[in-house]
């Protein structure tokens, strides 16, 4: 090897990836992973590595996107149900208001799961088109 190349290689302190972390997936799951990587314009292995490291490095008590989505859907439920009577010129009693709050607390998780499932289904339909 010529000395110039050897010196250039010594000055680079890149740590090579020599260990493999693997898992088994179904054919369907593999397709999902490949689509996710392709949407980001990276190879599957690089995308998987980035996702694994991001998850491993995130604090375990971090607020999840599902939690945030649940709160957003809860606000939507509350505003829709609280403002509808107001827009129609009606008033709600304090008892109705308390019932509304209890209803939102009881149903926001289910509603958020439905919204997330709908978003996933829509994305999958768009990916197949």
Task: Give a quick rundown of the structure.
The chain is built from five helices and no strands. By secondary structure, it is mainly α. Helix 2 (27-39) crosses helix 3 (44-57) and helix 4 (65-87) crosses helix 5.
Number of strands: 0
Oligomer class: single chain
Mean pLDDT, to the nearest integer, reads 87
Distance, first to last CA: 52 Å
- Structural class by SSE content: mainly alpha
**Unreliable parts:** none
Helix content: over 70%
The biggest beta sheet reads:
none
Number of domains: 2
| C-alpha Rg (nearest Å) | 25 Å
**Which overall shape is indicated by the principal axes computed on the Cα atoms?**
elongated
Approximately what portion of the residues adopt beta-strand conformation? under 5%
Task: Give the key terms.
129 residues; mainly alpha; 2 domains; elongated; 0% strand
Please, could you describe this protein's structure?
The structure is a single chain. Helix content is about 75%, strand content about 0%. With about 130 residues, it is mainly alpha-helical. It folds into two domains: about 20-60; about 65-129, no CATH class. Helix 2 (about 25-40) crosses helix 3 and helix 4 (about 65-85) packs across helix 5 (about 95-129). The longest helix is centred in the last third of the chain and has 35 residues, at about 95-129. The protein is elongated and about 70 Å long. The relative contact order is 0.07.
